Sequence to fold (85 residues):
Amino acid sequence: MLPDYTVTPSYVQVKVGSRVKVVNNSGRYFQIHSYNCSQFQMVDPYPGSYNYSGYFRTASRVCDYFAWDTNWSRKLMEGKVEVVP
Fold:
């Protein structure tokens, strides 16, 4: 996440068996959430650090992910990961 709370790129493609590296350049702590993919559980990089998602094992799937503001009032950022063979 960038200092303006956006993510770049917001849409990525990964191959089956790969992970996504989530870098936190926003200056604040946040947690990544996803309603349709478990690979983003425990992805919560501290400012200036990074975490990896879990391994994506199912092709032809699109995973939505996002980070909430601290009081859950709004989504700070959103993105998608498409898993390809």
